[in-house]
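4.2 Preliminary Data

To establish feasibility before requesting continued support, the project team ran the inverse folding procedure on a target of 211 residues. The structure was first converted into the token representation described in Section 3, and no sequence information of any kind was made available to the design step. The complete token record follows.
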């Protein structure tokens, strides 16, 4: 009986370390699986967060692209209006030049008007050059958010260019007004000369009829 009990004790002592090793291995295996799951969850979370970030950035970019399109259209319309104004000044120059030629043909001094017209033409060309400079500067930012800020800054530059062109057109128009004003004395002389000529012609015709 004592021998059997001793054998059981010996067997128990031998089995206990093996059991402990098995439990330890099982615990390590569970911890490993938990770590793997954590890593997988972390990677999946990072991927979804990146996808969401990209979608938000894409939406912002779409909004930015629409803003750029609207600004470009606005600038195009402004430039068209300013070009039309410059063309009207060119037409006015032709009319003034024709008036100068007519007055000059009547042996009336037009030197002042001619000098002023040269100045006016120079101002018109300067205005056209200012109009040609009106553009939206390139925005080369990496993200939609920074592009929006860059766009606002760029548009401020464009607004300055527009204001400069408008002022140049006003100066050119004022210069043409000066030419027209300088022609008034010559115009009056031409009208008086024409009136005198008509009176003289009428008198001569009446005299001939009486004879």
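Position-by-position output of the design step:
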């Amino acid at each position: 009986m004592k021998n059997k009990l001793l054998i059981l004790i010996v067997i128990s002592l031998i089995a206990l370390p093996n059991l402990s090793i098995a439990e330890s291995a099982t615990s390590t295996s569970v911890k490993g699986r938990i770590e793997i799951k954590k890593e997988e969850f972390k990677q999946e979370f990072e991927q979804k967060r990146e996808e969401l970030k990209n979608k938000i950035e894409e939406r912002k970019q779409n909004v930015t692209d629409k803003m750029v399109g609207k600004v470009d259209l606005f600038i195009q319309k402004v430039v068209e209006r300013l070009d039309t104004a410059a063309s009207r000044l060119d037409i006015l120059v032709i009319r003034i030049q024709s008036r100068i030629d007519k007055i000059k043909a009547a042996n009336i001094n037009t030197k002042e008007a001619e000098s002023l017209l040269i100045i006016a033409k120079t101002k018109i060309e300067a205005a056209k050059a200012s109009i040609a400079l009106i553009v939206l500067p390139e925005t080369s930012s990496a993200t939609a958010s920074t592009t929006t800020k860059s766009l606002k800054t760029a548009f401020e530059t464009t607004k300055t260019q527009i204001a400069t062109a408008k002022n140049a057109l006003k100066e050119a128009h004022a210069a043409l007004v000066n030419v027209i004003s300088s022609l008034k004395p010559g115009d009056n002389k031409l009208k008086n000369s024409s009136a005198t000529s008509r009176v003289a012609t009428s008198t001569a015709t009446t005299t001939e009829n009486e004879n």
